[in-house]
């Protein structure tokens, strides 16, 4: 049995003459947590809205659980959960009342007590919605998204407005849902969130997928970095796998072999009794990928992923 839950081929979507999504292709497997990443205007929200059936594709093929999100919306909607980037509630209702209203609109819903416990809002059940903090409001939106035990869960910026503790608890909730078999498609600007949660990510730029793979695959397209303050001895070594730049009093090596080049650098410093003040050595991160995008430099797609992103 094919375990592909979300299958997108050549998706395009236009707003008038502006094409926001320009040929996106994705295959997301059952039980996977997949993150769509990109700068503002990259096409993330449009892509996820097409998958949710909120907008029709201009061109291309889109299937969720084997169904067309627009044509088969009545059949598909009870099997999916959606947490929009901006939700809206009637503020005068309590948390419990809000859940009960949504339960009446949901096929085979969870009990209100169960879903509120899942998102750590059981002790806030009698509180009016407009008295919730921003993070609590987002957790209530998550509760409504998972009320019907969805097979596929769409999360659009789910932890916006949350404090760090609430964000990490939300990560735990999402992991619990994934372990129970839910497939999750996430968009987020919190890069740590994607690194912690995602099995795979796709980076969008200008409506195109420019990199896809595990978080490690994507960041592997960029070099690791070794930085330190310029020492008194300016005769810096050439490292075999690195390029070097000096800006002010900072030395920056970008290396394709962090271990070998760092070993050589430390050996050079020991031989000359040079202290490398402020020494830092680290692999690339998703933040580096974003900075690369912001600098208008397209990241190189890892070799093993190229065929799926063309």
Plain-language structure description:
The protein is an alpha/beta fold and 310 residues long. Helices cover 32% and strands 27% of the residues. It is built from 11 helices and 13 strands. The strands form 3 sheets. Strands 5-6-7-3-8-9 form a 6-stranded mixed β-sheet, with helices on both faces. A 4-stranded antiparallel β-sheet has the order 11-12-10-13, with helices on one face. Strand 1 and strand 2 form a beta hairpin. The radius of gyration is 23 Å and the shape is elongated.
Protein topology:
Blueprint: E1 4-15, E2 18-29, E3 33-38, H1 44-52, E4 59-64, H2 73-76, E5 80-83, H3 95-104, H4 112-118, H5 134-145, E6 152-156, H6 164-179, E7 183-187, H7 191-197, E8 200-205, E9 208-213, H8 215-220, E10 224-229, E11 242-247, E12 250-255, H9 258-272, E13 280-282, H10 286-294, H11 306-309
Parallel strand pairs: 3-7, 3-8, 5-6, 6-7
Antiparallel strand pairs: 1-2, 1-4, 8-9, 10-12, 10-13, 11-12
Helix content: 25-40%
- Write down the oligomeric state: single chain
Q: Report the order of strands and helices.
A: EEEHEHEHHHEHEHEEHEEEHEHH
Overall shape: it is elongated
Which spans have pLDDT < 50 for at least 5 consecutive residues? Answer: 297-310
Q: What composes the largest sheet?
A: 6 strands, mixed
Number of helices: 11
Radius of gyration of CA atoms, rounded to a whole number: 23 Å
Tally the beta strands. Answer: 13
Task: Please state the structural category.
Answer: alpha/beta
**Strand content range:** 25-35%
Tell me, rounded to a whole number, the average pLDDT: 89
Trace the largest sheet across and list its strands: 5-6-7-3-8-9
Distance between the termini: 26 Å
């Amino acid at each position: 049995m094919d375990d592909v839950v979300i299958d997108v081929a050549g998706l395009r979507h236009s707003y008038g003459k502006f094409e926001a999504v320009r040929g996106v292709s994705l295959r997301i497997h059952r039980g996977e947590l997949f993150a769509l990443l990109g700068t503002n205007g990259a096409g993330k929200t449009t892509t996820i809205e097409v998958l949710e059936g909120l907008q029709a594709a201009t061109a291309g093929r889109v299937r969720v659980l084997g169904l067309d999100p627009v044509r088969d919306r009545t059949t598909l909607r009870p099997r999916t959960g959606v947490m929009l980037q901006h939700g809206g509630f009637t503020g005068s209702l309590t948390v419990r009342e809000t859940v009960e209203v949504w339960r009446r609109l949901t096929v085979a819903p969870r009990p209100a007590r169960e879903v509120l416990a899942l998102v750590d809002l059981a002790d806030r059940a009698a509180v009016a919605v407009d008295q919730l903090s921003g993070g609590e409001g987002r957790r209530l939106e998550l509760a409504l998204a998972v009320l019907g035990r969805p097979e596929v869960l769409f999360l659009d910026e789910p932890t916006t407005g949350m404090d760090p503790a609430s964000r990490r608890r939300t990560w735990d909730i999402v992991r619990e849902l994934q372990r129970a078999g839910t497939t999750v498609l996430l968009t987020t600007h919190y890069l740590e969130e994607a690194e912690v949660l995602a099995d795979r990510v796709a980076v969008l730029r200008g409506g195109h997928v420019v990199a896809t793979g595990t978080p490690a695959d994507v960041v592997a397209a960029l070099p690791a970095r070794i930085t330190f303050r310029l020492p008194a001895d300016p005769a810096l070594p050439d490292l075999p796998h690195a390029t070097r730049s000096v800006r002010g009093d900072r030395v920056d090596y970008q290396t394709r072999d962090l271990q070998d080049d760092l070993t050589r650098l430390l050996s050079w410093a020991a031989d000359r009794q040079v202290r490398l003040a402020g020494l830092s050595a680290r692999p690339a991160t998703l933040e580096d990928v974003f900075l690369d995008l912001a600098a208008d430099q397209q990241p190189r797609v890892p070799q093993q992923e190229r065929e799926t992103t063309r």
